[in-house]
Amino acid sequence: MKKILSSKLLYDGRVIKVLFDEVEVDGMLLKREIVRHSGGCAVLAEKDGKFAFVTQYRHPFGENFFELPAGKREIGEPVSITASRELEEECGLKPTSLEFICEYAVSPGYTDEIIYLYYANDFELASQHFDDDEQLEVNWLDKNEALSLAKSGKIKDGKSLVALLWYAVNKA
């Protein structure tokens, strides 16, 4: 049995909110910081045996990451719309259909963020339009190269790894 005893907003930012909750779970008092996030979507886009990846600087790590095209979900926005919008914004590709892969909890110990993953292999060309604070480059990686980079640890982004694992199990 779970009962929230108190919840205090510590931070209300542009992307996240941070709360401090006191919760009673099975008679035990727990104190937890919780990061609230609207979630995001990513697309494993395949064309001619290659996957679309973007590279962008990730400040917490101080380095560029290979990642699938992805972005933050607007509150209340259908996840398939987010996925389609982000693929178009980052890669200039408008998917004609999306295959749902899965949703997963990013780090359930401290955040409610959910990532929704999709697969697409048929597109119409569109124009890229990055967010004001985005600087990224699109790279088309051969699927075997992408799987090798994941295996070697050069791709370490969770959403990309989950999507590549799904591909290896279901499509390869």
3D structure, described in words:
It is a single chain. The chain is α+β, with helices and mostly antiparallel strands and 172 residues long. The protein has two domains: 2-36, no CATH class; 38-170, Alpha-Beta Complex (Nucleoside Triphosphate Pyrophosphohydrolase), CATH 3.90.79. Helix content is 21%, strand content 48%. The chain contains three helices and twelve strands; from the N terminus they run βββββββαβββββαα. Strands 4, 5, 6, 7, 9, 10 and 12 form a seven-stranded mixed β-sheet that branches. The protein has a three-stranded antiparallel β-sheet with strand order 1-2-3, with no helix packed on it. A two-stranded antiparallel sheet has the order 8-11. A hairpin with an 8-residue loop joins strand 9 and strand 10 (114-120). The relative contact order is 0.19. The model has no long low-confidence stretch (mean pLDDT 94).
